[in-house]
User: What shape does this take?
Amino acid sequence: MQHSTFYERNAPDPALVERTLVGTAFGVHWLDAAARAGLRAERAQLRGSTAADLVVVGGGYLGLWTAVLAARREPGRRIVVLEAARVGWAASGRNGGWVDASITHGEQNGRSRWPDEFETLERLGRENLDAFERDLAELGVDCGFARVGALQLALEEHQVAWTQEAADGADRVALSAEEARARLHAPGVLGAALQSGRLVATVDPARLVLELAAAADRLGIEVYERSRVRALSGEAGGVLLTTVGGATIRAGQVALATNAFPSLLARNRLMTIPVYDYALMTEPLTSAQREAIGWAGREGLGDLANQFHYAQITAEGRILWGGYDAIHHAGGRIRARYEDRPDLHRRLAAHFLALFPQLAPGGVDGGVRFSHRWAGVIDTSTRFAAFYGTARRGRVAYAAGFTGLGVGATRFAAEVLLDLLGGEATERTELEMVRRRGLPFPPEPAVSVGVAAMRAAMDAADHREGRRGVFLRTMDAVGLGFDS
Assistant: This one.
C-alpha cells in the first residue's frame, strides 16, 4: 500500500492557501530589497577593443570571488568581469541564502563518490567557510552572514533513523521530537538533525553578490554588465573574447563562471542541465507569530525527503520557503516564462501551512501572507558537486555544476580556478574531485526522458517510506543523479 507523505496527510484547505497568495508580487524579494537599498548600481557595457591580464566570464558568486581573490593574490593585474545581464540577477541573487561548509553536496554524496579523500574534502570545506567569513569582514561585505546552523527535520517515522545515522556527537546532533519542537514549534516534527554553525551559515544572497561587486570596484576590478560573450578563441599568447555587441578583449587568462547557462566550451555542454527551483517569501511576522513558531535560533531549515524543502528566517522576520519541485524543460532551455508557475507556488504555500498550521489565515494575528514568489535556474550536474578543468593550453579554467549548494562552494571553486590558471600543484588541484570530471548527461531527448523518470522514482520513494526502487539504485550505482 502506498504511503502518504506528511504534506499530503496535513494538506490545508485550498481556500486558506489561496488567501496567503492574494496580492503576492511576482519577483525576487532579495533583489527588490537590494534595489530599495540602492545597492543595484548600473554598470557600463564593454565597448570597443581592449586587453586584460584576467577576464572572468560571469558576474555571479563564482565570477566575483574569482576576480576578488585574484586581485588579492596579485595586486596590480588588470582584471575584467563580463556579465551577460545584471550582476547577481540569476542564481546568485535569488537563492535560499544557505552557506554550507560542504563542497561535496553533503556528507553522503561526498563519502559515496570520494571515499578515500572525504576527510580531506570535509576539512577543506570547513576551512573554506572560515575563510569566507574572514573575507567578508576584510572586504567590508555586509550581507547578514550568521553562523546559525541548520535543522534537518524528520517528518516521517523512517526519517528519524536517518537523523541518528548522521549524528557525530559534535557538529551533527540528533534531536528527539521533544527537543526539535522546543526549537521549532511545528507540531508534525518527529525529530531533527541539528548541524552547528561551524557547518552552516545564512546570508542575504543578493546583498552578498552585490557587495562582492562593490568590493571588486574598490580593488580596481572592472565589472561590465550587458556584455554577453558569444565567442572564445585561442591566439598566440592568450585568448580572444568577443561579445554579442561586437566588443573584443584579449586576455592572458580566462575564468569561465557561467553557471547554468550554455558553456563557451563545447566539451562542457552536456555536463550540466538547467533545473528550475521555486520559492516564496512571507511578509515580516508579527512578534506573536514569531513566538508561536519558536525558531529563536534562526537555523536554516530543511526536510529529509527526496523532494525536499529549504527555508530560512531573515533578520527582519520574513520566512523564505522553497524547494520541492525541480523542473527541467526539454532541450535545456532557459526562459523567463518558466519562472511563473502559480500551480507550483500554490503547492509550496500548501506545504508551508502544513508545517506551520498556526500561521494559516485565521490563525495567530490573522495568519501570514506571502509578499513575493519567484523561481531561478540551478546548474545541476550528475555528481551534484562542481567539476573543474582547463582548456586552451591552460589559459582557460572553468567550474560549474554546484547543484544548488554553491553559495559557499563557489569561493572554494574560485581558489581552484586560480590555482589551475597559475599552474600550481596545490592540495586543491591534486584532489580526485578536481582532477576527474563526473559523467555527462545524455543528449536530448534522452536527458528529458531520464529526468522525468528520476523525478517519478524519487516521488515513488517518498511514498514508499524512503525505500529506493531499482531505477534509483541503478542510477546510484553508475554515478548518475538528479537533484536541486
Notes: The CA atoms of residues 9 and 354 lie 9 Å apart.
